[in-house]
From TrEMBL:
Coiled coil: none annotated. This is Retrotransposon gag domain-containing protein. Residues 1-23 are annotated as: Disordered. Residues 77-169 form the Retrotransposon gag domain. It comes from Microthlaspi erraticum. It comes from the Eukaryota.
Amino acid sequence: MGDFDSNPTLLIDRNPIQPPLPEGRSYEISPEIIGLVKQNQFQGKPQENPLEHIDAFEEICGTISAGGAPKEYLKCKLFSFTLTGKALRWVKSLPAQSITTWKEYKVAFLGHFFTKQRANLLREKISSFQQGPVEPFHEALERLKDYTRECPNHGLSEGSLWNIFYRGISGKCRFSLDTASNGNFMTKTVTEAKILIENLASSDSDNFIGHERAVKAINSDPYRDGYSEIKAMMAEILRNQGREVERQREAYRVESTIIQDYFGDLIPSFKKK
């Protein structure tokens, strides 16, 4: 039992990430590269997307080099610098020297943070997709695509995804697809359905941008702005006139009260005569 408390046991390398090096080679990773990857941090919070973190990290690694170091080696050495908080505690808890390849590192990372519960929630978002009441057609399509990117293991075929999209869009949009399909969108092949939907989304996006520009042009019309200023000035003039009329009425009421108080006793006797 005493061997477990010996100093040699405490001094072993506990780093779980140990990618092999070519014999007789060593590589130095500059602080600038480490600082670059540390700009995109992953803490392991539920709202963070581990897949997107991996994608962003691999994109950065595709643009850097470190003295000829193999990309797989570089990724293994750098990835831990992108982790913090709960995520960093997780990687430190792995057995010493248990990760030797980038693939092993990715599998372990996604296995821990891309949980079955997370995948099931994302699958539910896909299967229950509904276009929003005021959501443009092209934005609804992009949202469904975002859902599938967040959960690439959703297990649905492309045809099933287009069926889900068709059922989830508004009646007006379904009518447009049916019209473009000579009456029934559901008779189209998967490829034909994709082309129709993408074409309609492209047209909808162009119309939406044109509408936004038209609204912006109307709102920035100098004649319209000038008319608004005139309306505001007229409203202020009318308010001032109203205040003046009310002031005169108040003065008249005060004057009438004074006269009544002063001559009140004389007026009845005058009327009797």
